[in-house]
From TrEMBL:
Listed GO CC annotations: Z disc
Originating organism: Eptatretus burgeri (Inshore hagfish)
Pfam family, one: Nebulin
One Gene Ontology molecular-function label: actin filament binding
Keywords per UniProt: Actin-binding, Repeat
Any one GO BP annotation for this protein: cardiac muscle thin filament assembly
Listed name of the protein: Nebulin
Amino acid sequence: MKVAKIQSEREYKKAYEKEKTNMHLPVDMLNFVSAKNCQNMISNINYKKVPHHWTCLPDHIGNVHAKIAYELQSDNAYKADLEWLRGTGWVPTGSLEMQKAQKASEILSDKKYRQHPDTLQFTSIPDDPILIQSKINSQNINNRLYRAAWDDEKTQIHMMPDTPQFLQAKLNSQNISETVYKAGLKEQNSQGYDLRVDAIPIKVAKASRAIASDYKYKEAYRKQRGHHIGALSLEDDPKLVHSMKVAKIQSEREYKK
């Protein structure tokens, strides 16, 4: 057991673990004193020391002199008169240049140079020929007066229904009316169109379709296509027999035989 305790690492470090967190450093240690001195040197608290607070009287000679010197160096105080005059207008009413400008404006004024015709009192004579002719012309070109008699009479005129002109106008309106022109077509469209099966146009259309049909054109060929397959002899196939006859006719040897 003693040997196990000696060889045990936990027992070996037990005393060190107890004393590890218990450290006592003296206050007057050289490192502590040096750190405090460095902190005081880099700190701004003890760098500036105000010896005392003093108060200057407003009427002190130095204060008054400083104010005067500041006003002399101030750009705002230097330009105060200029800024005040800049926004203030000044018109030399009795100056020579002003009188010259007034005289020149009077000379160039069209109102003072001549009297405008609108200011003259003018009255035309009622029986002046030109005025009378103007009135007559205005009455002649007046559309309301030109149509006044017709507007009064057009509501009082009554035309008989059997008047020839009235009847002719009705016929003309019917002749040129598109509604009357298309009345028969609309009536036929509403009744429908009756076309029988044996009608000539239907038969013609069917015949034309049969002629133009490729199916009808090849119908006989399709019926004969499987009938001559596997013939027992040449005589059983009519096409082969026909081919042999044609070959004999075209054969020069048979021709000269």
